[in-house]
Amino acid sequence: MLTTVRADQAMTPRPAPARARTVATFYGGVLLVGFFWHGVGQDTNDVWRLDPHQDLVTLLWTPAVGVVAGMLAVQAFRALQGRMMWLGELHREFSSLFGRPASGELVLLAAASALGEEVLFRGAMLDAWGLWISSLVFALLHIPPRASLWPWTMSAFVMGLGFGLLTLITGNLGAAVAAHFVINLQNLAYVTRNRPRLALRGPVRPADPAPR
After folding, report:
1. Which among 47, 97, 161, 181 could bridge 10 via Cys, Cβ 3.0 to 4.6 Å?
2. Separation between Cα atoms, residue 152 and residue 154, nearest integer Å
3. pTM: predicted TM-score of the whole model, two decimal places
4. What phi and psi, each to the nearest 5 degrees, are found at residue 49?
5. Is residue 203 part of a domain?
6. Does residue 5 register a pLDDT over 60?
7. Is the residue at 126 inside a domain?
8. What 3-state DSSP class applies to 15?
């Protein structure tokens, strides 16, 4: 899940390609932190696998599990968007932040954030601090600029638990990275190319008939 920036930063105009490269560079640094943290803590450079003896066949099929999990998560949040006002507000926040990047830039943003965050939080931090603390730190780094968007932080905690469980169950980062990538890519494409839905509170009542 992409970490947001403050609203005053989002108002600064910047060409989309430059912005995409800046975000990719930032997440490249995040990936390096996770890689070296794992290497120092575990005395191995194999940050991808929990079990260094896991076979190639498992490494090849586990990303498919993540793709399915990511698609289900996206559809669940899409179904809730018409009922939760904060999702529409978050939609507008990201839309104003990213503008309308090209398809290649969307893939770069989604891949960089998925790889960087998963290597750090699930590759290094999950092993060092456990599922719950690593998911909590993951959520706290998704703090929005406004209090009305705090449910996004809570949803990031739930997603962090999901990514962590995928990693523990499959024994490698493939499923978590794939799920994270699918979620980021579909959400970025959606918020930069569609208007947010209006969330409705309470039942919709027909208008009173005009007096005759």
Report:
1. 97
2. 5
3. 0.81
4. -110, 135
5. no
6. no
7. yes
8. coil
Over range 18-46, report the average pLDDT: 88
pLDDT at 151 over 70: yes
pLDDT beyond 60 at 208: no
**CA 171 centroid distance within chain:** 21
51 to 23, 69, 108, 171: CA distances (angstroms)? 31, 22, 29, 6
> Does residue 5 belong to any structural domain of this protein?
no
Given this model, what pLDDT does residue 202 score? 47
- Residue identified by tokens 């105009």 is 13
Give me the domain span that covers residue 40: 16-193
Q: Counting Cβ atoms within 10 Å, is residue 152 exposed (0-12), middle (13-18) or buried (19+)?
A: buried
- The structure tokens listed for 110 are 């989604």
d(CA 141, CA 75) in angstroms, rounded, equals 24
Task: Name the token pair of 31.
Answer: 């990936």
Q: Which residue type occupies 37?
A: W
Contact in structure between 170 and 62 (CB atoms under 8 Å) = yes
Residue 19 — pLDDT band, cuts 50, 70, 90? Answer: confident
Six token digits for residue 7: 């609203």
Provide the β-strand partners of residue 49.
Answer: 172
Total domains in the fold of the chain: 1
Long-range contacts of range 125-129, CB-CB < 8 Å, 24 or more positions apart? 125/34, 125/37, 126/164, 126/167, 126/168, 127/38, 127/41, 127/42, 127/50, 128/37, 128/41
